User: Fold this.
Amino acid sequence: MRRTRFPALDGLRAVGALAVLGTHIGFHSGDALHGPFSGLLARLDVGVAIFFAISGFLLYRPWVVAWFEETEPPLVLPYLRNRALRILPALWVVVLLAALVVPHDRAVSWVVYLRHATLTQIYAHDPPADGLTQLWSLATEVVFYLLLPILAKLLTGYERPTRRGVRWRLAVLATFTLLGPAWMAGVNAGKHAIAGLWLPGYLGWFAVGMALALWQVARSSGRLGPSALDTLTKLPGTVWAAAVALLVIASTPVAGPFSLIAPTPGQAFTKSLLYTAIAACVILPAVTPTARTAKVLGGRVGHIAGDISYGVFLYHLIVLSLVERLIGFELFHGQLALLFFSTLAGSAALAAVSYYCLERPIMRRGRRDRSYDVSPVGLDKRASAQPNRTDAWTTPEVSPAPPAGQG
Assistant:
């Protein structure tokens, strides 16, 4: 059985990881709070939206393919097992490392670290655990993992796929993109900051990927006719330029302050909606890529970078803490370039060791597949747009591929 590969998404995993790393470096250096590029550095947290959209695409698509092929969808227990195999081993290592090597306040007890290890920290008012603050997004994503089989059943069951049915479901997913902005506006209006970390505020980012998965399969199977999206996939430079333009807009006060000061409800709504649009523009050219796009983003470098991107996301704040102590760095005292490249190099090295020595061996053993890799190599140089009978995602024994960067 052969898995459908979307090689261009490998490189976008790395882009998302670099963006998250960059926004944290920008904050620590102070360059994200003041200076000519403060807005852009502060808004590189859009990498989380890219991660979520890729997850929505890769994880929802197997249910869509099964629906169109009229075959059995992925079994829930193997799907959840594979999600756990992907994210938990490295997560537990990073929590242990943070507890041992990153200085922390006395208020940060073992209970705080236990909550991070179980990804339940976003539901408690604990003091921040240095080295682990980025894990809020992984905790949010895990809730999506748990709900996806239910969402997929509701959106793909009960009738055979028709053009009208596909359009209706695309409309439902489009409405999800407004739920997140509305939730974030309500959270900021009600001053319930912790609720701003919960899934409803980010469901629209996942829905972007889910909608593209439905569109891609429906388009390739003939359930949908040609549209403007087909033209845009052939113009990746134009679409990505639009993403940059949207990021520039988001880098203005219209999307809220660059610091940790809470935005107004209107600013929170705008920022969430802009990030949704940016995520859509970033991944659209990658789901049906041109040959050049697949080569650049899905080549050997992109493949390796995509494999270790989850580790870079996990370990970079621990590495940043070590770098700062090594050079005697003081918070908000510049040195952006030194912090960025040192942290990137250390994080990439640690992530590579983690992936090849820990994560991949555990996934292969747990899946009983000695050749398993997050990004299968040597299958298709371009994404396979056609759902087919040999696509292992349509079989109940096989679960979806890990999402980018965050699992």
Observations:
- Residues 180 and 201 are 4 Å apart (CA to CA).
- The two ends are 23 Å apart (CA to CA).
- The first helix runs from residue 8 to 29.
- The mean pLDDT is 90.
